[in-house]
Design a protein that fits this description.
With about 130 residues, the protein is of the alpha+beta class. The protein has helices at about 10-40, 110-115, 125-130, and strands at about 45-50, 55-60, 65-70, 75-80, 85-90, 100-110, 120-125. Strand 2 and strand 3 (about 65-70) form a beta hairpin. The radius of gyration is 28 Å and the shape is elongated. It starts with 7 loop residues before the first helix and ends with a helix. Residues about 35-40 and about 125-130 have low confidence and may be disordered.
Amino acid sequence: MGIALNHPTITAFLRTVEARRAPALAVLALAVAAVGLVACDEAELVVVQNNTAQTVVVYEDDVATELINPGLTQEFGTHQFRGTLTFTVRYLCDADVCDQGVLAERTFTWEEMHQAGGITLAVGSAALGEP
């Protein structure tokens, strides 16, 4: 005598198993996705030291991203990117006429930045040739 698969008890049992399996698979999929995002979302540290008497602006590929007050050091992260990324430091221009010359500038690939463990840009009197 065989077991009838259309028996109400077996059908109810199979529904229960299926109902429990779907949430477990969803939780497993979310856990795997979270681990993948953490592994792919690497960041490297960028440190800018402002040893000048004026506020400076840090540009990432010509987009102003950070303001650093005189005498302070600012740290921020940059996430993995393709191609190159250029960091430029200039004085903050808050007047009609001001110096917008480049105080520091460096261009990196992600691989270079990652191998170096981040980058440091220092601007100040020594970098400008001032006493």
